Amino acid sequence: MASKKTARAGRADRLNVELKWAIFKSGHTQRALARRLKMDETRLSRLVRGQAQPFPHERKLLSDALHKEESDLFRPRSKVA
Q1: pTM here?
Q2: For the segment 48-76, what is each residue's pLDDT rounded down to a tens digit?
């Protein structure tokens, strides 16, 4: 069983820092942005924490709302062998 410290470190690796920072810089909270985009708050939270991969329409929606390129907000996931 993994220790709490190891589990936290693994979660930090998945955090989408670019998306989190863009939301912060926009002046919105995650809740306010989700409501503005008519997106489920939990879904946005899972995208920010890296617990879900965005669908193409979500990538477009978020990049347009945050005035960023999709590639700046969402980097490809590295594959684990």
Answers
A1: 0.77
A2: 999 999 999 999 999 999 999 999 999 87
Model confidence pLDDT, tens digit, residues 13-35: 689 999 999 999 999 999 999 99
Confirm if 16 and 67 have CB atoms less than 8 A apart. no
Cα gap 65→28, rounded to integer Å? 11
DSSP string of 15-80, one letter each residue: --HHHHHHHHHHT--HHHHHHHTT--HHHHHHHHTTSSPPPHHHHHHHHHHHT--HHHH-PPPPPP
- What's the CA gap between 38 and 62, in Å, rounded? 11
Question: What are the structural domains of the chain?
Answer: 4-71 (1.10.260.40)
Read off the tokens for 77.
Answer: 């996931």
Q: Are 50 and 16 in contact (CB under 8 A)?
A: yes
